[in-house]
Design a protein that fits this description.
Layout (H helix, E strand, L loop, with lengths): L1 E2 L3 H20 L6 E7 L3 H17 L2 E7 L5 H13 L5 E4 L9 H7 L11 H8 L8 H12 L8 E5 L6 H8 L7 E5 L6 H5 L4 E4 L17 E4 L3 E4 L7 E4 L13 E2 L9 H17 L2
Parallel strand pairs: 1-11, 2-3, 2-4, 5-6, 5-7, 7-8, 8-11
Antiparallel strand pairs: 9-10
Helix pairs in contact: 1-9, 2-9, 6-7, 6-9
This protein binds NADP nicotinamide-adenine-dinucleotide phosphate.
The site of NADP nicotinamide-adenine-dinucleotide phosphate (NAP) has 27 residues, from loops.
């Protein structure tokens, strides 16, 4: 197998954003700014929020953090979003998902000003993406495109199978790949797909985003396919200090004696999300300054 480690891909993006930010500020603009809203204290969400803050600090972005208790009222979160939508010193707004039960995720996402929706989850941005207009592209699919570019994996004329149809990964990924310029022939699978192996076995690129370890193994793909593993699954492991280890949605070890190019977990797609968010935040700042 050929391991497509993504540390250098993410570092490359951060360097590019740092350079562009420097130029942007040298032209007399205020530093880009990101407001992050966290509801509750889910440990994984807290880690993601901390990483976003660290990335902002590294790039010299302004960063505003808002924390609500687990049992916060939906109306209070909406009221904060109203304020952030209007504030001139806020370029990007991100509400960390998932939200606790009792808060309607769609309602919250739809409340974010699309011009500040740096996660790219609002219906306006998803709609623009679908019709190939300028928009904020969701960070995970955007990061995957960056990985493909970095490793010179061409998508034009290639058969790409996306396993999973979520609004944050599968659907935007498929919508991007089918656009003019990327020109892939895209198949999107879900749990009702009768024979997953039949879909993947002649694919040039397989993007697996199911949230289930071992959804595919080497027997599902051609010997020289590219596999992008989006999954992040916690597997109980008493031998680890934290009591768990992370694994993807593909059975990584099974690819050992193949020529498959595959992103590892950890060390793969997950490393891209924060740098792509920083890229979107800089983009938001640029657009708002005209
Ligand atoms: P999700 O909302 O749970 O969606 C999973 C999708 O996979 C659903 O569409 C489901 O089909 C489909 N699916 C599940 N098992 C399947 C199977 N055996 N065959 C075919 N399709 C199957 O998950 P998500 O939010 O897209 O996330 C997917 C994975 O990516 C998770 O492990 C998540 O932690 C990870 N993730 C990673 C990043 C990152 O930055 N690395 C970012 C986001 C998500 P149905 O629609 O029929 O149920």
């Amino acid at each position: 197998m050929i391991r497509l480690g993504c540390k250098s891909v993410a570092e490359n993006v951060m360097e590019k954003v740092a350079k562009e930010t420097e130029l942007f500020i040298s032209e007399g603009n205020r530093a880009p700014s990101l407001a992050v809203v966290l509801v509750g204290s889910d440990p994984a969400s807290m880690t993601y929020v901390r990483k976003k803050k660290e990335a902002c600090e590294k790039l010299g972005f302004l960063h505003f953090q808002y924390n609500f208790d687990e049992d916060a009222a939906e109306g209070d979160v909406l009221a904060l979003l109203d304020e952030l939508n209007e504030r001139d010193d806020v370029d990007g707004i991100l509400v960390q998902l998932p939200l606790p039960e009792g808060i309607n995720e769609r309602k919250i996402i739809e409340h974010i000003n699309p011009e500040k929706d740096v996660d790219g989850f609002s219906p306006i941005n998803i709609g623009r993406l679908l019709i190939g207009e300028d928009c904020f592209v969701p960070c995970t699919p955007k990061g995957i495109l960056e990985i493909l570019r970095y490793f010179s994996v061409d998508t034009a004329g290639k058969k790409v199978v996306v396993i999973g149809r979520s609004n944050i990964v599968g659907k935007p990924m498929a919508a991007l790949l089918m656009q003019k310029g990327l020109d892939a022939t895209v198949t999107v699978c879900n749990t009702k797909t009768p024979d997953l192996r039949k879909e993947t076995e002649d694919a040039d690129i397989v993007i697996v985003a199911t949230g289930h370890p071992d959804t595919i193994d080497s027997s599902y793909v051609k010997n020289d396919a590219v596999v992008i593993d989006v999954g992040v699954n916690r597997i109980a492991d008493a031998s680890r200090e934290k009591g768990f280890r992370l694994t993807g949605d593909a059975d990584y070890a099974s690819f050992e004696n193949t020529d498959v190019k595959i992103t590892p977990v950890p060390g793969g797609v997950g490393l891209m999300t924060v740098s792509m968010l920083m890229m979107n935040t800089l983009e938001a700042a640029k657009r708002r300054r005209g």
